[in-house]
Design goal:
Helix content: 40-55%
Radius of gyration: 24 Å
Largest sheet: 6 strands, parallel
Number of helices: 17
Shape: globular
Strand order of the largest sheet: 3-2-1-4-5-6
Number of strands: 14
Structural class: alpha/beta
């Protein structure tokens, strides 16, 4: 099958590559000429484990190509995916200008029947808008499908190649059959392809992310209460998560959620509800809790030093909003660093993948180190912000020797309080007892 994917951001690039990996001929289209030229030369603009190798293989085998020419990408294609950004607007809604623009552009260049698929995360009702926009620019037949993605950054290839389910929203049996044929290689393990109406498919994406975000904010509120009453949230998590009705996923206490999906999608649902005269108070509280939780680590730092922060030096391990990505969109690290800088502190940072992303945000206001231990040299304390696996088994003796004093603020609960106390650290985790040697 020949496929066109418009947009070479996170969703479009992963989707296009995975479709090519299953034997399709895929043309990825983007207006960013520099990005397209880079992709042609093997330069992948995002970090996702395994993606670069997969792109190189499929480009080499002639199944995957990159172009700025939408007409060339759509020419001969059976399916065209819209995978452009839907950034958050000032009022919390999703800015749909890129989706609308691409829909019109597709209508202008298509030369026969085409299945147009909304892969971007879009508000309920977008498919109707796309139908109207495309119809205004073409007399050729087409169908519009809503096909939300459910990829996790850091595990996107596995999620796409082996999905839990595939959601297809459309009215047309013909379009549904084409989509089922396209996704058949990915569901041989028995995962269902759920065909439904467009609005339900669009809502499914938001409902899923809203529910996952709710679990994160809930466990973080529980964690804060655990600290107040002397309980351990990791034990509580086990007691709760072993209930088959609940499960263990997304019940890790920490610094809240970030990234491109949860914050934006939660606010978009709230805005959509408001448009229809509804107050989604639950998700409004989820968003508020998450914003508070991102400040939790700095509050612990400020409390420990009794507000005396000016001139102090802090090392940070982790900048990305989660491990296995270089994405810092709405990452807790951003707010923590800004608070420390505002307090007159020197900030030294290390992240396995997000250093260049951080440079674009902070410039020379902070210090960057390729080696994790270098940020500790002469620092008053270490702040753990992202739970990269390489941080889990460090050389504690070396850490203790490098720090001015053995103080760690752990926003991801990488270690146990008892163990850290034995090793001689002042240790401040989330939702667990703080300890001193």
């Amino acid at each position: 099958m020949k496929i066109c994917v418009v947009g070479t951001g996170y969703v479009g690039l992963v989707a296009g590559t995975c479709f090519a990996e299953s034997g399709n001929d895929v043309a990825c289209v983007d207006i960013d000429e520099a990005k397209i030229n880079g992709l042609r030369e093997g330069q992948v603009p995002i970090y996702e484990p395994g993606l670069e190798e997969l792109i190189k293989r499929n480009v080499g085998e002639g199944r995957l190509s990159f172009t700025t020419d939408l007409s060339a990408g759509v020419d001969g294609a059976e399916v065209c995916f819209i995978a452009v950004g839907t950034p958050q607007d000032e009022d919390g809604s999703s800015d749909m200008k890129y989706v609308h623009q691409v829909a019109g552009d597709i209508g202008r260049v298509m030369e026969g029947y085409l299945v147009i698929v909304c892969k971007s995360t879009v508000p309920v009702g977008t498919s109707k808008e796309v139908v109207s926009i495309v119809a205004a620019h073409t007399e050729h037949p087409f169908d519009v499908v809503s096909n939300p993605e459910f990829m996790k950054e850091g595990a996107a290839l596995e999620d796409f190649l082996k999905p839990d389910r595939v959601v297809v929203g459309c009215k047309s049996e013909k379009a549904a059959e084409i989509m089922q044929d396209l996704y058949e290689p990915f569901v041989r393990g028995g995962a269902p392809i759920l065909v439904m109406d467009n609005a339900s498919a669009e809502m499914t994406k938001y409902a899923a992310n809203g529910l996952l975000a709710t679990r994160i904010s809930f466990v973080n509120e529980v964690a804060n209460l655990c600290e107040a009453v002397g309980a351990d949230v990791t034990m509580v998590r086990k007691g709760v998560g072993m209930d088959r009705r609940l499960g263990m996923h997304f019940l890790y206490a920490g610094l809240g959620y970030g990234g491109s999906c949860f914050p934006k999608d939660v606010r978009s649902i709230i805005h959509k509800a408001k448009e229809h005269g509804l107050d989604f108070d639950l998700l409004r509280a989820v968003d508020e809790v998450n914003n508070r939780q991102k400040k939790r680590l700095f509050e612990k730092v400020k409390s420990h030093y009794e507000g005396d922060l000016k001139g102090r030096v802090f090392g940070l391990w982790g900048l990305a909003f989660k491990p296995r990505t270089d994405d810092m969109r709405e990452a807790p690290s951003i707010g923590i660093i800004e608070e420390l800088l505002d307090a007159g502190c020197t900030v030294k940072v290390h992240d396995p993948e997000a250093m260049e992303t951080a440079r674009r945000i902070f410039g020379d206001r902070i210090e960057y180190y390729r080696q994790s231990y270098d940020v500790l040299d002469g620092a008053d304390a270490l702040l753990v912000v992202t739970e990269w696996n390489e941080f889990r088994r460090p050389d504690f003796v070396r850490m203790k020797a490098l720090l001015k004093k053995p103080v760690i603020f752990d926003g991801r609960n990488l270690w146990t309080p008892a163990n850290m106390q034995t090793r001689g650290f002042h240790y401040f985790p989330i939702g667990r007892p703080s300890v001193s040697p």
